[in-house]
Amino acid sequence: MTSVCKFDDLVDGSAVCHNVDGVAVAIVRIGDDVHAIDDLCSHANVSLSGGDVWPDACTLECPKHGSTFSLTSGEPDTLPATVPVRVHHVSVVDGDVHVELSS
After folding, report:
1. Would you give the end-to-end CA distance of the chain in angstroms?
2. The domain 2-100 belongs to what CATH superfamily?
């Protein structure tokens, strides 16, 4: 597990990119929940953290072509993306956000 930021530094309903062991990871806060997925869109090699967060759907939208990715499964919910991105384990310990990369 790698500590990436403070929970209180995350803006509710937005995404930010952090480097975790050499991997760009989009960290997304929705209310009291924090999600982490690969930051690179599987369709267009674009940073997902620059896109919109859709809290009700628990998705992150790619800013280039509009594909949305589930923050819980990594599966694309809309075209043109068809390949999922990895979802990583997140925990908040004493106000610090920790991420463990998935294989």
Report:
1. 13
2. Rieske [2Fe-2S] iron-sulphur domain (2.102.10.10)
**Dist. CA 83–CA 86, nearest whole Å:** 10
Task: Read off the tokens for 84.
Answer: 């999922």
- DSSP line for 71-100: TTT--BSSSS--S---EEEEEEETTEEEEE
Q: How far apart are CA 33 and CA 68, in angstroms?
A: 18
Q: pTM (2 decimals)?
A: 0.95
Average pLDDT across the chain, whole number: 96
Q: What is the pLDDT of residues 63-103, one digit of tens each?
A: 999 999 999 999 999 999 999 999 999 999 999 999 999 98
